[in-house]
Amino acid sequence: MNIAQNIAAGLDRILTMEVVRVTERAAVAAARLRGRGDEKAADQVAVDAMRQELNRLAIKGTVVIGEGERDEAPMLYIGEEVGTGKGPAVDIALDPLEGTTICAKNLPNALAVIAIAEKGSLLFAPDVYMDKIAIGPGYPEGLIDIDASPAENLANLAKAKGVGVSDITACILDRPRHAKLIDAVRATGAAIRLIGDGDVAGVIHTTDPDETGIDIYLGTGGAPEGVLAAAALRCIGGQMQGRLILDTPEKVARAEKMGISDPKRVYRAQDMARGDVLFAATGVTDGNLLDGVKFGRTFITTHTIVLRSSSRTVREIKARHQDLDKF
Ligand code: VTB
Question: Average pLDDT, stretch 189-200?
């Protein structure tokens, strides 16, 4: 496909490289505030850096998943137009610092993330919880089911992997609301990796269990993070199901306003991120898949993963930034 055809098809291929700079900048900015115990400050610098870089991209972009509604987020709010305005019309889901608390505590797996998709192809998810289940690639479609018990899902996964359930590790957010889920998983003999935050990374980790040690993601986390994770899985492969938790009339009404008519609908990864999708994540703190930003004496090193659904290419980019004045 040549560039003109590519633009016509939706996403410009050049964007795949250009987008790296966006998450790199956000990650470097946040990493300067790693371990300072100030979540807000780390998030703010990441937002500023991401927005600045995003506005240099040759796109006509609209933020559909961002820092919040316009009245609560001054920058990268839902509906904000970003990019130079010249280029493909795209929808953008982003989280300049996914895992603000882990960054503030300097714990593993804080990321700067973005997904860019053809206009109209990302789920407009309200900022509510989403029940999620995800596994990596290479398993028959339908192996996991959000409505089945954890025991059933774990047994089916173990069987398909050719191991015992006790060889399976589930990743779950460490939250009181997950007490029952945690008990149910432990009762099967499976191991759990409890994470403090960062379920985008948690879901992505299922795509490479040999490297990350995680086979399945279970539990409820943010719905916006669910769409970001779904975008990544669309590119790498794997299966995910999510259901919004709309447990009050106010949440149902909010979702309706965003075009969600069936509050109980189960979304698969391909329903949350349709069409051609680009996904990029740069490590802020060291993690299982990505290294964190390293500040050297003469250069800064960043580690980024860039994915594209149409080609399913997984690129890892380790960059040395020598022009330190820019950062
Ligand atoms: C997760 C996690 C985020 O929010 O989505 C979580 O990925 C869910 O909300 O890093 P609670 O913290 O209320 O459980 C974060 O922890 C923070 O946005």
Answer: 97
